[in-house]
Hints:
By secondary structure, the protein is an all-alpha fold. The protein has a single domain, classed as Up-down Bundle (3 helical TM bundles of succinate and fumarate reductases), CATH 1.20.1300. 83% of the residues lie in helices and 0% in strands. α1 crosses α4 and α4 runs antiparallel to α5 (89-123). It is elongated and about 55 Å long. The termini are far apart.
Amino acid sequence: MRDQKLWTWHVAAGVLVLVFLGLHMVIMHLTRTVGIGTPAGGHAVDWGNVVARGKSLFFTLTYILLLGAALFHGLYGLRNIVCELGPSAGLKKAINALLLVGGLGLFGLGTWAAIASFQLASSL
């Protein structure tokens, strides 16, 4: 039952990655086509547009959600691949602990970076 819940979360995280990465690709690469993502005009990577996105709480939250979904989806998928190789029960627990601690550490670092970027852009 636990594996079924985790697999459901894995699929849901994949859908979130698809939606938020698709949104990112549209904003960063199709700005002239759809006309969003460039409040200061010009290209999406122009400094004024980067600062405008940095000041947006929407972008900060979507970056954090994308990070969490991508980390969970990727690390749970890696865990499943490694566990299909048939490691011993002790090694499986060690793998689970390593992936959990590593994932939480990366999520914490990425969340800190997104929030620090938001605060820095808001002070400009």
